[in-house]
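Mods, move this if it's the wrong board.
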Amino acid sequence: MKAETALFAGVSFFFATCATVYGWLSREPAGTAALVIACLMSAVVALFLWRQHEKAGPLPQDRKDAAVHQTVGPVAFFPPRSAYPPLAALGTALLGAGVVYGLWLFLLGAGILAPGVWGFVFQYGKRGT
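Not the wrong board. Structure tokens:
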């Protein structure tokens, strides 16, 4: 995770530099705010990865002398099928259309999106126990 932390810290530094230069030269608030938010978002990811590296210790990929067989293992859990991705996609589409067409469609989209996100988060919550 050391390389990933350095990558996102570099991205954060890049956006901080761009926001500073852009804000100083253009004095335009919307673009400067977007660059500052991009800097903060990448800094949050870098901070998270750094904390995970501190908590879990170095991974085999972080060592130069690590053999390939030390990095093998289960990659992740991929569910076979789920109804929540189409539900979340439909809710997101209706939410976006509701911004254009009216509050009633926005609320309908939010009502469909909420269970979709809830299902994504808690669908396999008890899988490990």
